[in-house]
Amino acid sequence: MILLVVGILFTACKKEEPLMTVNYPETKKVDTVDVYFETQVRDPYRWLEDDRSEETGAWVKAQNEVTFKYLNAIPFKNELKNRLEQIWNFEKVGSPFKEGNYTYFYKNDGLQNQYVLYRQKDGEKNEIFLDPNTFSEDGTISLGEMDFSNDGSLVAYSISEGGSDWRKIIVLNTETKAIVGDTINDVKFTSISWKGNDGFFYSSYDKPKGSELSAKTDQHKLYFHKLGTPQKEDKVIFGAIESQKRRYVGGRVTDDNQFLFISAAISTSGNELYMLDLQNPKSKIIQITSGFDNDHSVLENDGDKLYIVTNLNAPNKRIVTVDAKNPTPENWIDFIPETANVLSPSKGSGFIFANYMVDAVSQVKQYDYSGKLVREISLPGIGSASGFSGKKADEVIYFSFTNYIVPSTSYKLNPKEGTSNIYIKPAIDFNPDDYESKQVFYTSKDGTKVPMIITHKKGLKLDGKNPTLLYGYGGFNISLTPSFSIANAVWLENGGIYAVPNLRGGGEYGKVWHDAGTQLKKQNVFDDFIAAAEYLIAEKYTSSDFLALRGGSNGGLLVGAVMTQRPELAKVALPAVGVLDMLRYHTFTAGAGWSYDYGTSDQSKEMFEYLKGYSPLHNVLEGIEYPATLITTADHDDRVVPAHSFKFAAELQSKQTGKNPVLIRIETNAGHGAGTPVSKTIEQAADMFAFTLYNMGIKKLSLKK
Fold first, then answer.
1. Which end of the chain is more exposed for a tag (fewer CB within 10 A), N or C?
2. Which residue range is the domain that position 41 belongs to?
């Protein structure tokens, strides 16, 4: 039986009680100097960029010893870990999908490191089809992209080892589960798309020589692998010649195997669109759109009629139709015109579902293929709905719904009738009725209104003493919509506040909102985050002594920039796998592809000075007390290489004044985050929460037992 221990949830330390002291490992400095537009910039920790050297390995080991000694000494850390394991331990089942003669679904029994793929045939017993937990003893090999051939008799899937973006593709006969042909090695940033049963398209870069984690990769190529032939004979479809040199290339075959559509981009925003007629052996690749100012993708085809999603002349996106014989933009006809809200469409059961973001929450409208509005889908509440996809012949489709207090629940929808009912509701030890989420609009520095959703226990006293996690991202057109987090449930149930602002740089209000937080406007993102913190403090939700800033990847940059610009704003900073060296980020792996958002230091003197002005690594000053900081990264992160975090930690440790600790937690045999085993996710969350609360002066917790 689960009992709630009644009493004060957070008890603060007395002021005279000192927190733990930390003796940092010594980090050597070197005399590396770069010159940008006649300006010298020192880089004393350049040697830490060599992430495979013995010297860097010794530094990582020494830092982890200090960090884990500190974390393991926090009195309530194990209590947090135990509660996280307890609440995590419930059955999680994904929505089913039909391929060939089988219905497939993902399931996790509770604390399994990776989800297992099950299947069922004609009412027979469920059977395990793929269990990634058997791929490695520690759960660090994860299942990635997957695509079934049209008849479902073959499947190609990728695996990631140790969280790396470099992957392998394996093909199985779905009936016998026997491996077909050779394993495809060294693929990166790829989709998988079958052409009949002959073979499939995939993407990759030329593998860098040696094992350099940070080696630059900037020429992406689309390949076709013919089943039964060796990988070395795979044909390059796009990207082999200099005129086709692009950083991101992907291919997708239409459901009827008529067309291959190719997306080619030089950065993470904007792409060219190409088409190849697969039914005509003599056909050549046709360019549909040119330039990289807009985003385009093909949603569907009905014979030669194409349905294209685009933000060309429509910052919030629209769907257009065009004949494949004359597919260029001057021939496009509006099918679902642009509205005031951002569009993300899907298709299934012979319908198109227009999923709109209205102030970062979902609204879904159903259309037929003539463009007629059939109905607005009734959703179970205010939050995020996703799914609404399947094959044309499917009689039912599935969608999921979640928000910050409602665990993801699957619904079964009959598109012809418009009726839906709960398909799977998780049995988690968390009662949404005890909590509330409220959306507010606050004013940023330049007067822009920014939405934020604040979540906490009902009846919370607004006295400025509530431990608060302020989470942000603000970049790459990515939208933060309401979603449930098992880890955050533990934070909430113990009186914590979780606040998420929709910063500029994201996609919540379309391309205009995104562009307002890019390049020479990047400071808007930091100002929006700072204003969110100031709102929470002014409204007495919390105070600087009880505020933690949290973000990962581009969000790690956000935390790093804000903590160096406003070190007094928050008590704790939690930058995860962050982009922290803004002068050199583009020299590692595919980092140059992020230039649409950031610009680069060699682009112009103005851009160099702007980047240097906020780059977290270059704005750590002597004599400043920065927040208690727990930097997190992984030794196999080949997207945002760990050198960013290594160098930032060394710089902070060298210059930090006062008693706030600066620690770096380096996960080994792990990557940027995708496929992280449940066991490691729980350990990371326990460490993060323990560090945060302890440095806010919390002495003990009262947790569910």
1. N
2. 10-86+433-701
Instruction: Tell how strand 572-576 and strand 628-634 pair up.
Output: parallel
Q: What tokens were used for 216?
A: 């630059």
pLDDT score of 173: 97
Give tens-digit pLDDT for 598-637: 999 999 999 999 999 999 999 999 999 999 999 999 876 6
CB 301 within 8 A of CB 317: no
- Based on its alpha-carbon atoms, the radius of gyration of the chain, rounded to whole angstroms, reads 25
Count the domains in the chain. Answer: 2
Reference 632, options 48, 26, 214, 63; nearest CA is 63
Nearest Cα to Cα of residue 474 among 354, 562, 586: 562
Give yes or no for a contact between 536 and 547, defined as CB atoms under 8 angstroms apart: yes
Same domain, 388 and 484: no
Q: Per the confidence metrics, is the pTM higher than 0.90? A: yes
Question: Do strands 662-667 and 628-634 pair parallel, antiparallel, or not at all (unpaired)?
Answer: parallel
CA atoms within 13 A on the CB side of 589: 25
CATH code, 522: 3.40.50.1820
604 is annotated as an active-site residue: no
586 is catalytic: no
Cα–Cα dist 22/190, whole Å: 43
Q: Write the CB contacts of 573 (distance below 8 Å, at least 6 apart in sequence).
A: 548, 549, 559, 560, 563, 626, 627, 628, 629, 630
User: Which of 225, 456, 586, 672 is an active site residue?
Assistant: 672
Q: Are residues 509 and 591 in the same domain?
A: yes
Same domain, 658 and 569: yes
Are residues 484 and 420 part of one domain? no
Write the single-letter amino acid at 346: S
Catalytic, out of 553, 601, 615, 645 = 553
Residues 582 and 638 reside in one and the same domain:
yes
Query: DSSP assignment, residue 139?
Result: S
Q: Give dist(CA 522, CA 125) in Å, integer.
A: 54
Q: Is 489 in the same domain as 373?
A: no
672: pLDDT strictly greater than 60? no
Q: In what order do the strands lie in the sheet with 199-204?
A: 193-195, 199-204, 221-226, 235-238
Q: In terms of domains, do 352 and 468 share one?
A: no
Q: Are residues 422 and 443 part of one domain?
A: no
Tell me which of 363, 393, 427 is where a domain ends: 427
Q: What is the pLDDT of residue 705?
A: 63
